[in-house]
Design a protein that fits this description.
The complex is a heterodimer of chains A (121) and B (328).
Chain A (H helix, E strand, L loop, with lengths): L3 H5 L1 H18 L12 H15 L8 H13 L4 H17 L4 H12 L2 H4 L3
Chain B lengths: L2 E4 L2 E4 L6 H7 L17 E6 L12 H5 L2 E3 L9 E4 L3 H4 L1 E10 L4 E8 L10 E5 L5 E5 L10 E6 L5 H9 L5 E8 L13 E6 L3 H13 L6 E7 L8 H7 L6 E7 L5 H5 L5 H6 L7 E6 L1 H13 L7 E5 L11
Classes of the chains: A mainly alpha (121), B alpha/beta (328).
Chain lengths: 121, 328
């Protein structure tokens, strides 16, 4: 048990977290419009890959991908407040699942590291 | 950018364009309907070239191996040589054995295939007319109890296929069918799970199949079926459903009439909201939503926010070309 992903519980942890996390995001009127699409299942799957990455799991994300994927949202006004709101929901999700504090800190550090790319800075 | 070879045509694809759109832009009359990777009407076969994974992910492994792909989901930079599927590989012949009018606009059709089709009630099939026109219809029948395939066909004002199916298609005549397709069906592994079924119009067809499957499996959890309909005379299975569930106190049926609702309310999909008012907490429920795309989308999201897990929400949006206000 070495990596963050293993310590946090691997794919099972992602599966447990994604429903709670995405529900919080959709229920938050200040950010939900960035997440509403015609294909809810696809959007849910995207959140799952995001959590896998934030949990230190296997992923193919690059900074350039992040930039490209979020560019249309930045054009619609995505800003730091929105980013912080999503991060807050991620933290609340982990707390709800009783993830130990030191692991939450690690996850939040990974999520925070994507900020410039997500916001296109 | 890629070169798509189709018959004698060499077509240059544009950036961000699906193979289907390349064909349509060049005035090639390729079959399609939903353009969302659901209905599989636009299925084609790749003879040479490298297909992207997304173009095949919804298909069964045996179709993937033979190079079948969904042209509306195929975005690629590699050159492809493609063709329409050979009919005998995908389609089987089915004969119309019964047709019955259930409401002013809805008809029930029974089709029979020479070899029984292996399917789950609630899945759908693609029906192909002689001239190549293809449309999707859900299966209301139960393979364990019925020896024919039951479809509910609503005659649409400008629906070429539905007009033909309800008026011109005669008993004893044949049609080609492909399928079954889709994952909107009852799983007999969770007998006591509460279930919420919401359908608008002929979105009732897959739900009746699912309900009958649940009854067949002695489902013990509570089941709530809501049928959203414009007018009372379009509650086309009202009596049948009441008779079907008469002796099963755990199953409940509730019609929702939209006639007196504002158009915005109906168009936005909120007509199904009654179901959610009565069931505000859906943690642990299994949800099936079928019919008008706006209603499906709205209910999907609301059911999820009410606590249902994404894996427990099944939907079947009726994405037809006739129903769309704007082409895509």
């Amino acid at each position: 048990m070495n990596t963050l992903f293993e310590k946090i519980g691997g794919e099972a942890a992602v599966n447990a977290a994604v429903d709670i996390f995405y529900r919080k995001v959709l229920a938050d009127d200040s950010i939900s419009h960035f997440f509403e699409t015609t294909d809810m299942a696809a959007q849910h799957a995207k959140q799952k890959s995001f959590l896998t990455m934030a949990f230190g799991g296997p992923n193919n994300y690059t900074g350039a991908d992040m930039r490209k994927a979020h560019a249309p949202l930045v054009a619609k006004g995505l800003n730091e407040n929105h980013f912080n709101a999503v991060a807050g929901h991620l933290q609340a999700t982990l707390e709800e699942l009783n993830v130990p504090e030191n692991l939450i800190d690690e996850v939040m550090a990974i999520a925070g590291s994507t900020k410039d790319d997500v916001l296109g800075k | 950018m890629a070169v798509i070879t189709y018959g004698e045509h060499l077509l240059q694809s544009e950036a961000g364009e699906s193979v289907l759109d390349t064909l349509l832009r060049n005035n090639i009359d390729a079959p399609y309907s939903c353009k969302a990777g659901v209905c599989q009407t636009c299925i084609m076969q790749c003879v040479s070239g490298q297909l992207p994974e997304t173009a095949q992910q919804e298909l069964k492994p045996n179709l993937r191996e033979q190079g079948y792909f969904l042209s509306c989901q195929c975005f690629t930079d590699s050159d492809l040589q493609i063709r329409l599927p050979e009919s005998e590989q995908l389609f089987v012949t089915a004969k119309l054995i019964e047709k019955q009018r259930l409401s002013p606009t809805v008809y029930r059709l029974h089709l029979q295939t020479a070899t029984p089709l292996f399917y789950h009630a609630g899945q759908f099939i693609n029906v192909k007319r002689n001239d190549g026109l293809i449309r999707s219809y859900s299966l209301a029948s139960l393979p364990s109890e019925d020896n024919s395939l039951e479809l509910h066909v609503k005659r649409m004002d400008n629906g070429a296929m539905s007009h033909w199916m309800t008026e011109d298609f005669q008993i004893g005549e044949n049609i080609e069918i492909d399928g079954p397709i889709g994952n909107c069906f009852y799983a007999s592994t969770s007998h006591d799970q509460p279930m919420l079924l919401v359908g608008s119009g002929t979105g009732l067809a897959p739900l009746i199949g699912i309900l009958r499957d649940a009854l067949h499996n002695n489902h013990s959890g509570p089941v709530y079926l809501y049928h959203v309909s414009f007018k009372e005379d379009e509650l086309y299975l009202d009596k049948e459903i009441k008779a079907l569930i008469e002796n099963t106190p755990n199953v409940h049926y509730k019609p929702i009439i939209t006639q007196h609702m504002t158009e915005d309310y109906v168009v936005s999909g909120r007509a199904g909201e009654t179901a959610l008012v009565e069931h505000p907490k859906l943690n642990g429920w299994k949800i099936f939503i079928c019919g008008a795309p706006a209603m499906v989308k709205f209910m999907q999201q609301r059911a999820y926010l009410a606590g249902a897990s994404m894996n427990d929400i099944y939907s079947d949006p009726f994405e037809t070309r006739e129903l769309r206000k704007e082409p895509r």
